[in-house]
Structure formats: structure tokens, C-alpha cells
Design a protein that fits this description.
This protein starts with 18 loop residues before the first strand and ends in a 7-residue tail after the last strand. With 407 residues, the chain is of the alpha/beta class. Strands 1, 2, 3, 4, 5, 6, 12, 14 and 16 form a nine-stranded mixed beta sheet that branches. Strands 10-11-9-13-15-17-18 form a seven-stranded parallel beta sheet, with helices on both faces. Helix 4 runs parallel beside helix 7, helix 5 (236-252) runs parallel beside helix 6 (271-282) and helix 7 packs across helix 8. It has eight helices and 22 strands.
Length: 407
């Protein structure tokens, strides 16, 4: 639904600092470590009280002259709000004065995370050994000790689970996504209106999660949620819209407990984006998020800092934190993130080798889907997260992702 309210009012001046009026707050653009250049002038995200009807709110602001143009409304569990173009600061100030408005924050640019620059085991089941392997990460996550040259996994391999990949789209013609596993209808949230991947980042993520050669959960379904363009850039509001679509799609198809919402993207801290992701998690959809690749505290970025998100850092082949990986108390687990070969765009067999927490988070999403299939009793994000943490291999101060194969 798109609702439009247009009136012309006062002259435009720059917004600086923080304004706090009544129950709401204006979250300033410089309240985090991101560049001011990431702020999109005149575009805002308004978060409403969960009990506030959007229609009632719109009536309240229509009683005065405003420059508000609503572009997208959001309703993800307890998270309610909308994105809007607002020309004049007086209108922003007015919104913060309304009791039903919790916050108003500038919309901003979101980018792909990485621009291509004691033994615990599961019951032994029908295990498969893949030899050779295309990347060392597969060997690492299926063995307690590092240096393995094969990948060991249960033959169920994540069958009848779903990865909602919030990214640049997917090359669904790649041979590693055979038998239509990546051709299910997705979400085209950019100007192209399609889910085709003109950047390659989303396809690389998909390959690690579920590629038949390069991936972890080789039988999982892959659903593209395209919110970033061919430059690998988008907006916070577009990511929230994609999150809403994925949550509603998984819910309406009865697959919340068998799905992962995957984010290998990020930007500066956004309360609205964090609230949207947290609401999806609280509603039963697991969110796996790359910590980021800036060698910084992951708590300064979104959606990594969302409560309930399962945040992943990158490890090197010697089981130490990769030098570029973000870190901090919110990082749940570490997974391989250097020199990882995976699927790419340009042809049905294209590959790329890359570094970053993009790869690490994809390994975790793959293992999460793998465990969901193996253990039907893992029906909540918290239960799956607890299983991943129970299995991970201690390595100094890190805990390295492990699928529990028994080797």
C-alpha cells in the first residue's frame, strides 16, 4: 500500500544534532560511525508504537500542512512504521511530537559487506564424504581439527529448508543450483524489479549456503530477496521492505522454523532496521548476519547489532580471527572467511574466490539449515542458535563453526 500526503510548507534547512520531543526521538545521521555521505537527504524511516494503527496516524498528520510523501509501509510482527520523503525540518519535528511515533531516523545507504576486493558430535547417520573440495572452509566446518581436505555431511543436506538471501539477487541458472532450487519466486526490490544478480555478491553467498559443489546445505532451496542494486548498494528502507517480504512469505508458507533470513550486508547503526530484524526473529525466523569486514566493533553496525540476530565473524585457516573481521561481544561464532571459492555470475559455471565475513555468515546459514533438517525439534531461532553454539569448536578465544559430523 502506498499512501500519499503532499502539502508545501516552510523552507528547507539542514538537520543537525538530536531532537527529542514527547515520546519520540529524531535519530541523527551522525549518531554512529558511518559516513555522513551515507545519509540520503530528505528520506526518513518512522517507527510507530506497535499498537498504533497506521491509518489513524496518517489522519493525525493530514490535519496540518506537511511535505510528507509515504513511499513504503512496514508491518513485521511488533515492528510498525513507514518510509517517507520529507522536505521540511518542521514536519520532521512535528512527527517526533506525536505520541504514537517512537522514532524518526534518516534513511541511509546499505552496502554488501565485502566488495570483491572436547569433541562434540551428532549421531552418525548416512554420512557423505565430498572429495576433493573446492574451498578449505567445507573441510574446516566438518572436522574438529583444521587442515581437512574433505567435507563430511549427512545426506539429508538441508532438504526442505529455505534460505532467504537478502542481497543483490541470484544467478539462478548456475549449475550448482540445479533442479530449480534457486528458481522459486523471490523479491525484486530494486529499480530493475527482478531478482537477477548483476553484481555477483548474492550469487556468491548462495553458493556457500547451498551450492552442490561449493555449499554446505546442498539440497536447500534458495530464495532471492533483492534489495541491493548492481553496484551492491541500497537503502535501509529497502532492506526493511525485503525483510518484511521474506518474513511474510515464510510465514504464509508455513516454513518459519525451516528457514534462515541471511544478511551479508550492512551499514551504520539503524534502530529501525534492527527493530525490523528483531521482530522477524521474535516471530520465528532465524536471522544470520555477517559481523562486517572493517576490523571494528560489530555493535556499531546494522543489522549486526539487532537483538536476536546470530552474528558471524571471519576466521583464517589457522583458526584466528581474520584481520579484517569485525569483532565484539555480539559476535556469536566464527567461520572460514579467507580465500573461499564459490559460485558467481556471467555463466552457468562461473566461480570467484573471495574474502570476508560474507563467506563466514554464509557457512553458518548453511549449517543452520543443515541442522534444522537433522533435528526437527529445533523449531525456534534460539534453539537452532543454541545447537550451533553447542557444536562449535573452541580455538583460543574463538569458537569455530562445526557441523558435528564426528570427525
Amino acid at each position: 500500500m502506498q499512501v500519499t500526503i503532499r502539502w508545501i510548507s516552510f523552507a528547507f534547512v539542514a538537520l543537525l544534532g538530536s531532537i527529542s520531543l514527547c515520546a519520540a526521538s529524531l535519530i541523527p545521521g551522525d549518531a554512529d560511525i558511518s559516513s555522513a555521505a551515507d545519509i540520503i537527504p530528505g528520506k526518513y524511516i518512522i517507527t510507530l508504537s506497535p499498537k498504533a494503527p497506521l491509518s489513524q496516524h496518517l489522519r493525525s498528520i493530514s490535519k496540518r500542512d506537511t511535505s510528507i510523501f509515504i513511499t513504503q509501509d512496514f508491518n513485521i510482527g511488533s515492528f510498525k512504521g513507514y518510509a517517507a520523503d520529507i522536505a521540511f525540518p518542521a514536519d520532521v519535528s512535528h512527527l517526533t511530537s506525536l505520541d504514537e511515533v517512537l522514532s524518526v531516523e534518516p534513511d541511509r545507504v546499505v552496502r554488501v559487506i565485502d566488495d570483491f576486493a572436547a569433541t562434540k558430535t551428532l549421531d552418525r547417520r548416512a554420512l557423505v564424504t565430498q572429495t576433493p573440495i573446492s574451498n578449505w572452509g567445507l573441510g574446516r566446518i566438518s572436522h574438529v581439527a583444521r587442515g581437512a581436505t574433505n567435507y563430511i555431511y549427512d545426506e539429508s543436506a538441508g532438504a526442505n529448508t529455505w534460505a532467504y538471501i537478502v542481497d543483490t539477487g541470484i544467478n539462478d541458472q548456475h549449475v550448482q543450483f540445479a533442479v530449480g532450487r534457486a528458481s522459486q519466486p523471490g523479491y525484486g526490490g530494486t529499480a530493475s524489479g527482478t531478482t537477477a544478480d548483476g553484481n555477483g555478491h548474492g550469487t556468491a553467498v548462495a553458493g556457500i549456503i547451498a551450492g552442490t559443489r561449493d555449499g554446505v546445505a546442498k539440497k536447500a532451496f534458495i530464495i532471492p530477496v533483492k534489495v541491493l542494486d548492481d553496484r551492491g548498494a541500497g537503502t535501509v528502507s529497502s532492506v526493511i521492505a525485503g525483510t518484511q517480504w521474506a518474513f511474510n512469505h515464510a510465514s504464509s508458507n508455513g516454513r518459519l522454523s525451516k528457514s534462515v533470513l541471511h544478511f551479508s550486508l550492512g551499514g551504520g547503526y539503524s534502530a529501525a532496521l534492527n527493530n525490523a530484524v528483531t521482530s522477524a526473529v521474535n516471530g520465528g525466523l532465524m536471522a544470520v548476519v555477517a559481523a562486517g569486514s572493517s576490523n571494528s566493533n560489530a555493535a556499531n553496525y546494522s543489522p549486526a547489532s539487532a537483538a536476536g540476530a546470530f552474528v558471524v565473524g571471519a576466521s583464517a585457516s589457522n583458526d584466528v580471527r581474520a584481520s579484517f573481521s569485525n569483532y565484539g561481544s555480539i559476535v556469536s561464532v566464527y567461520a572460514p572467511g579467507q580465500s573461499i571459492t564459490t559460485t558467481y555470475i556471467g555463466s552457468s559455471t562461473a566461480t570467484i574466490t573471495l574474502n570476508g565475513t560474507t563467506c563466514s555468515a554464509a557457512f553458518v546459514s548453511g549449517v543452520a539449515l543443515y541442522l534444522m533438517r537433522l533435528f526437527p525439534e529445533l523449531t525456534t531461532p534460539a534453539a537452532v542458535a543454541a545447537k550451533v553454539l553447542d557444536l562449535c569448536t573452541p580455538a583460543g578465544s574463538l569458537c569455530i563453526l562445526y557441523n558435528g559430523s564426528g570427525y
